[in-house]
Specification:
Structural class: alpha/beta
CATH architecture of the largest domain: Alpha-Beta Horseshoe
Number of helices: 15
CATH class of the largest domain: Alpha Beta
CATH superfamily of the largest domain: tm_1862 like domain
Radius of gyration: 22 Å
Strand order of the largest sheet: 6-9-10-11-12-13
Shape: globular
Length: about 475
């Protein structure tokens, strides 16, 4: 198995689960992790310099005269990030020369060039390739990856419990359409895989093959559940990916068992909860807070939440204080915009006022706040960006990090379907290409090119940089760049 995770600053949870599933079924597995072979790991946002601000200004430029330069810079950056690394190819070729029964590839969409080259290496040696990843439950996306040499099937589903049987079927030459979520190179496919609901049956991840000595700090990735209780944000591809459809959860007992076992195995009490929304089930979130220190004394942990408008969303002032006392050091959430009109258009299910209250309460409790934001959602105006700038001006002291991006129209999301099926609703958008291989639409938004919009955007970006160039609070510094 080859893990192609770009952000390999801690073990890849999905790969650890699949390795455990295979080994528990009696299979021998060799895992290739690029970081173990000195392939540099990308980190998420750290303390910024002027260079970071300059790169952001270039990447998010909307000036018509600068568009060609910006697009060229983007293409070069994407090519550089997605190019096959010679060490990954070398190590995979070495293992393939030992004639394994099958090559398993866990890929994100930016890895197409690498996956294609690894498939070629396997095909030359007559070794079948099984390909999977979070976005391959989208028909168009999975189908566009089927021309890769050596690929016997692309699997778009949660195979935590059935992967051993699928592997055995590939090696034995059996019909793979007996399994859900399978796409074959000849164009045939099985029925879509339903969401996995027996989450308590998923094995404890096996992270023993990961290069723990290469990580800046030892952090254990975990998930208490899959999907999102809200499940309505019309731009979110996470809730439409293979593991994001509908909300399902593990029991508190299972979560705490994993905490104890993984802490013992890897001699660390640092945890990263990768749930789309850790407060989907407020009772479970409170259970983690109540039991974390008992099961992993000295535990420090981080997670992502959604500040929704439920009467009880698990994020009250008292809840956040309890989370901080239980070792929560950083919380991330989707702020997206400081304009209520935009939040409503996105169907975020939150309000500017509750977002403001949340970040104040989290900061007061001693928790470092990280948020994600973007510009260019259809319908956004200069006035909306000014409201975002005003929000950041008023609340910047409570925020430690912001990840600010261009809005992406991603395959399978409601906004993607609406742009494709009802383009007249979005006169400001000109779609250049529906890129199925990358599961996104390339587009130009004419509403973002005017001078008033650009001035407001420049103000927002200056505030983002002002926040990101600061040191994070001391208690969260170990997690800076991880989430």
């Amino acid at each position: 198995m080859v893990d192609l995770n770009n952000f390999s600053t801690f073990p890849t949870l999905a790969v650890g689960i699949l390795v455990a599933s295979l080994r528990n079924a009696g299979h021998e597995v060799e895992l290739i992790c690029p970081l173990a072979h000195d392939v540099p790991a990308a980190e998420r946002e750290r303390r910024e310099t002027f260079k970071d601000q300059l790169m952001r200004r270039v990447h998010l430029s909307t000036h018509p005269a600068f568009r060609a330069t910006r697009d060229l810079a983007r293409r070069v950056r994407l090519w550089w990030r997605g190019r096959p690394h010679p060490r990954v190819l070398r190590e995979t070729a070495r293992v393939l020369d030992e004639k394994p029964d099958i090559l398993l590839l866990s890929a994100y969409l930016q890895h197409y060039a690498t996956v294609r080259e690894l498939g070629r290496l396997a095909a030359e040696r007559g070794i079948p390739v099984l390909l999977g990843g979070p976005a391959f439950n989208q028909n168009a996306t999975a189908s566009s990856w089927l021309d890769i040499p050596g690929v016997k099937a692309v699997v778009g589903g949660e195979v935590d419990l059935v992967l051993p049987r699928i592997v055995e079927a590939v090696v034995a030459g059996e019909d793979l359409l007996q399994f859900d979520g399978v796409f074959l190179p000849d164009g045939r496919k099985s029925r879509p895989a339903p969401p996995l609901r027996q989450l308590d049956q998923i094995p404890v991840p096996d992270f023993t093959d990961f290069p723990w000595d290469r990580y800046r700090m030892r952090v254990i990735p975990m998930m208490t559940g899959r999907g999102c209780q809200w499940n309505k944000c019309n731009f979110c591809s996470d809730i439409t990916s293979a593991s994001g459809r509908t909300y399902r959860t593990k029991s508190l007992e299972t979560v705490m068992h994993e905490v104890r076992e993984l802490s013992r195995r890897h001699e660390t009490t640092n945890f990263l909860f990768l749930d789309l929304k850790l407060n989907s089930n407020p009772a479970l979130f409170r259970g983690i807070c109540e039991n974390m220190q008992r099961n992993a004394p000295g535990a420090q942990w981080v997670g992502t939440v959604h500040v929704d408008l439920r009467k009880d969303n698990g994020l009250s002032r008292a809840d956040l204080r309890a989370a901080a006392a239980a070792g929560m050091r950083r919380v991330s959430f989707g702020l997206e915009s400081g304009s209520q009109r935009m939040l409503d258009l996105m169907e975020k299910g939150c309000s500017v006022e509750t977002n403001a209250e949340f970040i104040r309460n989290a900061c007061e409790a001693g928790i470092s706040v990280r948020c994600t934001m973007f510009k260019g959602f259809p319908g956004e105006t200069a006035a909306d960006l000014e409201q975002t700038a005003n929000f950041l001006t008023k609340h910047s002291e409570f925020i430690d990090r912001i990840r600010f991006n261009e809005f992406s129209i991603l395959e399978g999301t409601p906004i993607h379907d609406a742009v494709r099926e009802e383009p007249s609703r979005f006169p400001e958008l000109r779609v250049l290409q529906f890129d199925q291989r990358q599961a996104a639409a390339r587009y130009v938004n004419s509403a973002t090119t005017g001078s008033e919009y650009r001035r407001a955007k420049a103000r927002v970006l200056a505030l983002v940089h002002q926040i990101n160039r600061r040191e994070v609070r001391r208690t969260a510094q170990a997690f800076d760049g991880l989430m």
